[in-house]
Amino acid sequence: MPCYRCGVRQTDPVRGASPWRRGVRREEQVLICPTCQREHDLDLDHCGSCGSTMLICRLGEVECRSCGSVRLARSAETETLVKAGAPGLSEEVEAALRRVLGRQPTS
Asked: Are 61 and 71 spatial neighbours (Cβ–Cβ below 8 Å)?
């Protein structure tokens, strides 16, 4: 995954902690490279409870690493896909397997 600001790709890390930072922007997990971390306005989402930007997004939830607050992610993209009747992950995997393996639909 590239840095959301400059697009540079993360390289294999050397031993020790990674200098890259995770964050949440517009309810999506993003990575921030060391150079872009020096910027004062990273435009990251803030915790509704404590105001921290130390958030992680996983499995449809946004969790604050500072205070532990957890809430459901309100991703506009996800809502749009659900309303449009887009296939879920299991349907996408089944369709991909059919394409790759030449299988016929199971139903």
From this structure: yes
Joined together, the tokens standing for residue 61 give 């939830």
Please provide the DSSP assignment of the chain as one string.
-BBTTT-PBPPPPPSS--S-EEEEETTEEEEE-TTGGG-S-------TTT----EEEETTEEEETTT--EEE---HHHHHHHHTT---HHHHHHHHHHHHH-PPP--
Residuewise pLDDT in 10s, the chain (107 residues): 889 899 998 877 778 888 899 999 998 999 999 999 998 788 899 999 999 999 999 888 999 999 999 998 876 445 545 555 556 777 778 877 888 887 666 55
Taking the whole predicted model, whether its pTM rises above 0.85 is answered as no
* Domain residue ranges in the chain: 1-74, 75-107
